[in-house]
Amino acid sequence: MIFKSVQVDGFVKKPDEKIRAVLVYGSNDGLRRDTVKRLAAAVCPDLNDPFRAAELAGGDLAADIGVLYGEFNGQSLTGGRRVIIVNDAGNDLTKAIRKMLDESPNTGNLLILSGAGSLNKKSSLVKLAEDSEDMAAVACYEDKNEDICSVLKSMGMTFEPAAVQLLCSRLSGDRMVNLNELEKLATYMGTAKNVTAEIVGKIISDASDAALDDIYYAALGGDKVKALSFYTRYVNEGNEPAAVVRGLTYHLMKLLVCRAGIENGESVDRAMQRLMPRIIFYRTDAFKQQLSYWSRDKLLRALEMLYAAEKDCKTTNMPAAEVVSMLLLRLAAAAKRQG
């Protein structure tokens, strides 16, 4: 059967002994790990208890499935259901899992399969879990805004609408990363309960594309110190400098579209409303300021600088990180220059 978040929450509160195996799979590594941990802890609160919890590597079981049989049919010396977690479980275990469950009708233990990254809806192991009455399949994909809001509701704090919107824009699609960021926020709040957008902006790291946006807005707003600071952090996290050039090109094109609308008689607000997607609310003032700095001719010259920088990254021996660093300095200097 298929378990969605509601069914997972229900199982965590009251584990159903009819469910003997759960497959947790999907591209959201953080959510997958968190779900496995929650499901396992619902049956065995102390996952360090060697009598009630065991962890196996899926790659090792193909050669010796008997190890899994032994763990799944074992009894706890201290009583209670045992939990067996199999990491990186793949399609090569599909037939063996079904056979083991059929041949072990009396065990009350729980098998949790943490799926390999290659598993998807069409995988044989996923289909087995979805079609079996004694198994459940939990898909873990990137967190959406409603998923983030669901987590926020469970935190016991109140979030202003602007704070929620800012959080959704800054958090990533990975549940574990998001939980770490929200834990940092909870620590900062202490006993206070009302979370504002200002607090979110101060505490929550740029775990998503907001990190790139910070670079764009600082450089094109004329703040070279912040631009280099944001850029250095971005590169040190292992990201590609070339992505900054591509993103800057897209951002400049948005400015160019708005500039054309303004020159045709539209108001700044009307020109910005035509952009899809819209500029997020907490960036609108900065975007308007950039429109005041960048004329049509300056934007075209900036685009030429970007094309040249991208070419240098691809065709010269100059380190890409340094090429982009110099580009940001030139853009920041040009932002407030007249003409």
Structural write-up:
The termini are far apart. The strands form two sheets. A six-stranded parallel sheet has the order 1-6-2-5-4-3, with helices on both faces. It has a two-stranded parallel sheet with strand order 7-8. It has 339 residues and is α/β, with parallel strands linked by helices. Helix 5 links the parallel strand 4 and strand 5.
List keywords for this structure.
339 residues, alpha/beta, Rossmann fold, Helicase, Ruva Protein, domain 3, Zinc Finger, Delta Prime, domain 3, 3 domains
Give a brief rundown of this model.
With 339 residues, this protein is of the alpha/beta class. The protein has helices at 5-13, 29-43, 58-61, 66-73, 94-103, 124-131, 145-153, 161-170, 175-189, 197-203, 210-220, 224-236, 241-263, 268-273, 284-293, 296-315, 320-335, and strands spanning 2-3, 21-25, 53-57, 83-89, 110-115, 135-139, 158-159, 194-195.
List the helices and strands and how they pair.
Elements: E1 2-3, H1 5-13, E2 21-25, H2 29-43, E3 53-57, H3 58-61, H4 66-73, E4 83-89, H5 94-103, E5 110-115, H6 124-131, E6 135-139, H7 145-153, E7 158-159, H8 161-170, H9 175-189, E8 194-195, H10 197-203, H11 210-220, H12 224-236, H13 241-263, H14 268-273, H15 284-293, H16 296-315, H17 320-335
Parallel strand pairs: 1-6, 2-5, 2-6, 3-4, 4-5, 7-8
Radius of gyration: 26 Å
How many strand segments?
A: 8
CATH superfamily of the largest domain: P-loop containing nucleotide triphosphate hydrolases
Q: Tell me what portion of residues adopts beta-strand conformation.
A: 5-15%
Alpha-beta classification = alpha/beta
What name is given to the CATH topology of the largest domain? Rossmann fold
| Helicity, as a percent range | 55-70%
The end-to-end span amounts to: 65 Å
Q: Give the overall silhouette.
A: elongated
- The H/E string reads EHEHEHHEHEHEHEHHEHHHHHHHH
Low-confidence stretches: none
CATH architecture of the largest domain: 3-Layer(aba) Sandwich
Count of discrete structural domains: 3
The main pleated sheet reads as: 6 strands, parallel
- The overall average pLDDT, rounded, is 87
